[in-house]
Amino acid sequence: MTYHPKSDFMRVMIERGFLADCTDYQGLDEALIKGVVPAYIGFDATAKSLHVGSLIQIMMLRWLQKTGHKPITLMGGGTTKVGDPSFRADERPLLTNEQIDANIEGIKQVFAKYVSYDDSPTGALMLNNAEWLDGLNYLEFLRDIGRHFSVNRMLSFESVKSRLDREQSLSFLEFNYMILQAYDFLELNRRYGCLLQMGGSDQWGNIVNGIDLTRRVLDHEIYGLTSPLLTTSDGKKMGKTADGAVWLNTEMRSPYEFWQFWRNTNDADVGRFLKLYTEIDVAECERLGALAGSEINEAKIVLANAVTTLCHGAEAAAAAEATAREVFEKGGVGDDLPTLTLAPAEVADGISIVQLLVKSGLAGSGKEAKRLIADNGARMNDAPLTSAALVLTAEDLAEPVKLSAGKKRHALVTLG
C-alpha cells in the first residue's frame, strides 16, 4: 500500500490493517475530507447473533463514526430470503419471515455496543432492506434494473465461478443475490446519500456491481472498500473454534468464554488482532505483539480485556480475567465459569461423565468425550479422569464439580 491518505478514516484503515482493496483511493479520500460520508455494511440475518468473523466489519463502522462519518448498519431482511452464494459450496437453508425478524432483533443488540444510534449528523442508522425489496414488482425490476446486468460478467465473478468450476449447482434464486445487493447500494444512495459500501474481500464483486448500477441509473459517483478475509496464523477461519462459532451475544457465548477465546490467541496473531479488534495505539499494539516467551501472555490478557470490554463491558472483562487467574494460577473454581445446572430428575439414576462433558460444552459429542478421557485430556476437580464408564450420583454433585478439557477450558456442574 503506497497510497498516503489525507483523511483520518483512510489513515486508520491502512495503519491498522483493515484495508484489502478500494475502488478509488483518491476519490474516496477526497470525499471523506469534504464532509460527512454515510457508509454501509450489510449483514444477513442467518442467526440470532453475529460472531467474531463479523467483528472486523463492526470495528470498521465504529472507526468510521469515530473519525466523523455516518455508519449505516443494513439488516438483510430481504436478502436473507435469497441467501448469498459467495464462495459457498451449498445453498443456504431458507428461513421464515418470523425467524428472520427474530434474528434481526438479536443482532441489533450487538451493534448498539459499537456505534451510537442518534439524530446527530454522524448518528448511526439501522435499516432493513426488506423496506424496498419486499414490495418489488418483478417485471418492473427486470426492465428497470435487470437490463443493466450482463450475465457474462456475473459468471466471471470469482464467487460464482468457483461454484460452477466445482460443478456444484447454483440456483437461479442465489444467482439473483448479487443483483439485489447492487440494488441495495442504489437505494441507499438514492434515499440516504450513502457514498460507500464496505465488506469482506469476498464481497468485492457484489460491491463493484452496486457501484456500476448506481452510476448507470443515477449517474452518481460512489465507492467500495474491502477488508481482508481473516484466518489465524495456523490457517483456521477467524471466529471458529473446536466447539463452534464465537458468538457476540451474551446468551449464546458467555463473556468468560469470549474472553478465553482472545486469551488463547496464537502468539503470531497478537499484534495484528490488537490493531484490528481494539483501539489501543498502533505503536503499543506493535510493542505488545513483539513480546516473546511468557511476556506474550500478558499481551494476550491486554487483548482479551480490551475486546471483551468493547463487546460485554469493563465489568465482564474484569470478572473474566479474575476467574481465569483463579482457575489457572490457583487451580481454584472461579465464580464466572460457564455453569451447567442439572435438575435433580436428570441425576435420579446417575449421570455418566461422558454426558456431563457433552452437556457442559467441553466435548462436541460422546465420541469426542471418550477420546478426551482416553487421551488423558479430561479432569474432574483437577484430577485426571481415567474411565469413560464413570457415573455420578446426586450425592457426588452435592458440591459443585469442576470439569476441565485440556488446560484452558473449564465448566462447573451443579444441582439446581
Automatic annotation (TrEMBL):
> Which segment of this protein is annotated as the motif 'KMSKS' region?
237-241
Identify the GO cellular component terms for this protein: cytosol
Residues forming the motif 'HIGH' region are 45-54
> Known EC number(s)?
6.1.1.1
Q: Where in the cell is it found?
A: Cytoplasm
Which enzyme class?
Answer: ligase
The record ties this protein, via InterPro entries, to:
aa-tRNA-synth_Ic (IPR002305), Rossmann-like_a/b/a_fold (IPR014729), S4_RNA-bd_sf (IPR036986), Tyr-tRNA-ligase (IPR002307), Tyr-tRNA-ligase_bac-type (IPR024088), Tyr-tRNA-ligase_bac_1 (IPR024107)
Q: Which GO terms describe its biological process?
A: tyrosyl-tRNA aminoacylation
Q: Which reaction does it catalyse?
A: tRNA(Tyr) + L-tyrosine + ATP = L-tyrosyl-tRNA(Tyr) + AMP + diphosphate + H(+)
User: What keywords would UniProt list here?
Assistant: Aminoacyl-tRNA synthetase, ATP-binding, Cytoplasm, Ligase, Nucleotide-binding, Protein biosynthesis, RNA-binding
Q: Enumerate the residues binding L-tyrosine.
A: Y40, Y177, Q181
**Pfam families given in the database record:** tRNA-synt_1b
Summarize where ATP binds, as residue positions: K240
The Swiss-Prot or TrEMBL record annotates one GO molecular function as: protein homodimerization activity
| Assembly and oligomerization | Homodimer.
State its role. Answer: Catalyzes the attachment of tyrosine to tRNA(Tyr) in a two-step reaction: tyrosine is first activated by ATP to form Tyr-AMP and then transferred to the acceptor end of tRNA(Tyr).
Q: What is the similarity comment for this entry?
A: Belongs to the class-I aminoacyl-tRNA synthetase family. TyrS type 1 subfamily.
Which protein are we looking at? Answer: Tyrosine--tRNA ligase
